[in-house]
Design brief:
The protein has about 450 residues and is α+β, with helices and mostly antiparallel strands. It is about 55% helix and about 20% strand. It binds adenosine-5'-diphosphate (ADP). Adenosine-5'-diphosphate binds near residues 343 and 377.
Length: about 450
């Protein structure tokens, strides 16, 4: 606004002067014709011309001089220079046929118009008009004043509106900040709900998702800690009971000592297994950065696992078969994957019946390799299938207590598969058997 009004005001006086002088010039041409028609130069007594002169001089707020061929002023509307000679450069140029416009330093426009019959004929006289530009200056001044007031009012209004709108716009963001403060300082556990703008609604929704995830994480951490404590306490409680019952007997027979010490050793073994499994799990959960990826022959890896578990299987006379459809090499962390497949095959043996079978198969396509561990064991009830990968979950505690286990094996296996960006599935029929299917990319995806 400042620039526009500044440039308009700056150009106003020159434009107004131009318009005024063109106007006066046109009037003068008409007057010059009338002067010729009424032979005013020879006999300056026409009242009509005098009237016209007065009218024109008052209209343009200026002075009009009529100069004849001898450079003598024969008429002056100010009655000051009549009879005197006026020889100026402007007048001389006009006698040569030029109309001249010029602005003087005193704020006047001086206009000369030749008096002549037609373009080609000789100039018989000159009309010299001085027009005051005072009114133009005062109009420019008044306009400047008006523009100043307008700009001031506009400036104040614009600033006030800007402050008001910015305040209104920022208010929801301030609400988000204060609600976040309330949540982070623990004064409220409510969700963030600032729905003023689409953006604040999205921020609220995303934030609420994060807090929900964090709550779930916290809950599962608490559950894990309480499960760990419970599982670690169980063998200790048994050992305490066994030790106390020995201590309470004055003269306990050696056989009883031996039997109870054997039980205590078993409980120590169990405690040891839980701790080893827990450490494996913690190691599995660590960042993928700690993976030790290398090209590995998966056939060899599976063969080795089966070889290690064969003594366990032979105790129940379980037949173990490895069926490999093709040689497979893949980029994997040998340690973690060995632990995962060992847990799966060990379960297939543990939860199997006498004279049963365990069938491990390996296949691959251009992207993944597939390992299936099938058994002829007791199977897993349908309602338990969703939970078996959870830490410490064991199907039917009383039944499982006959079979050694910590409930961590499948959690470790799943964690190891997921860290390889793979997938693990289970299908089972109670009384018939269980199949675990694992799919892992041949090339490690970081
Ligand atoms: P555990 O140390 O008890 O074997 P896992 O996490 O390996 O813990 O397994 C969780 C539970 O899933 C087991 O307690 C068992 O009830 C069930 N389970 C796992 N594998 C099999 C299987 N092959 N056949 C039947 N039940 C299984």
């Amino acid at each position: 606004m400042l620039l526009i009004s500044g440039s308009l005001l700056a150009s106003y006086p020159s434009k107004a002067v131009f318009t005024r002088s063109t106007e006066v010039q046109n009037q003068c041409r008409i007057l010059a014709n009338q002067i010729l028609n009424y032979h005013y130069l020879e006999d300056p007594s026409s009242e009509l011309i005098d009237g016209e002169l007065t009218q024109l001089s008052s209209m343009c707020d200026g002075r009009i001089l009529i100069i004849d061929q001898d450079f003598r002023a024969i008429r002056d509307t100010y009655d000051l220079a009549e009879g005197s000679f006026i020889v100026s450069e402007q007048v001389l140029r006009c006698f040569k046929g030029e109309s001249v416009n010029q602005t003087t330093e005193k704020g006047f426009i001086e206009i000369t118009v030749p008096v002549k019959e037609s373009e080609s004929l000789e100039v018989q006289g000159v009309l010299l008009v001085s027009v005051s530009t005072e009114s133009i200056q005062s109009t420019a001044g008044a306009l400047q004043g008006d523009a100043g007031v307008f700009l001031l009012v506009y400036g104040i209004l614009a600033t006030a509106l800007a402050v008001l709108f910015s305040h209104l716009l920022v208010r929801p963001v301030e609400r988000i900040a204060s609600e976040l403060h309330e949540i982070s300082s623990g004064h409220t556990s409510d969700d963030l709900s600032v729905k003023t703008y689409t953006e604040t609604r999205r921020i609220s929704e995303e934030f609420n998702k994060i807090t929900t995830q964090m709550r779930m994480l916290d809950e599962s951490r608490q559950e894990f800690v309480s499960n760990v404590s419970h599982e670690l306490k169980t063998p200790l409680t048994s050992m305490k009971v066994l030790a106390d019952s020995l201590l309470m007997q004055e003269e306990a027979p050696v056989e009883l000592y031996k039997e109870f010490m054997g039980d205590i050793a078993e409980e120590i073994e169990r405690e040891n297994k839980i701790i080893t499994d827990l450490l494996s799990l913690v190691k599995m959960d660590k960042k993928a950065a700690s993976l030790n990826i290398e090209q590995t022959d998966i056939n060899d890896l599976l063969e080795l696992i089966l070889k290690r578990l064969r003594p366990l299987a032979s105790k129940k006379n379980i037949e173990m078969v490895l069926e490999s459809f093709r040689p497979v090499t893949a980029e994997v962390d040998v340690g973690r994957l060995t632990l995962a497949f060992t847990n799966l095959v060990e379960n297939a043996v543990k939860y199997n019946k006498e004279n049963g079978w365990v069938h491990v198969s390996l296949d691959a396509d251009h992207k993944f390799f597939y390992v299936k561990v099938m058994d002829s064991g007791m199977g897993i009830p349908e309602e338990s299938l969703d939970y078996i990968f959870e830490r410490f979950y064991r199907v039917d505690k009383s039944h499982s207590s006959e079979i050694d286990g910590t409930g961590l094996g499948l959690a470790i296996a799943k964690s190891a598969v997921l860290v390889h960006k793979g997938a693990i599935k289970v299908s089972s029929q109670v009384g018939e058997g269980t199949t675990f299917s694992v799919r892992i990319p041949l090339n490690y995806i970081a």
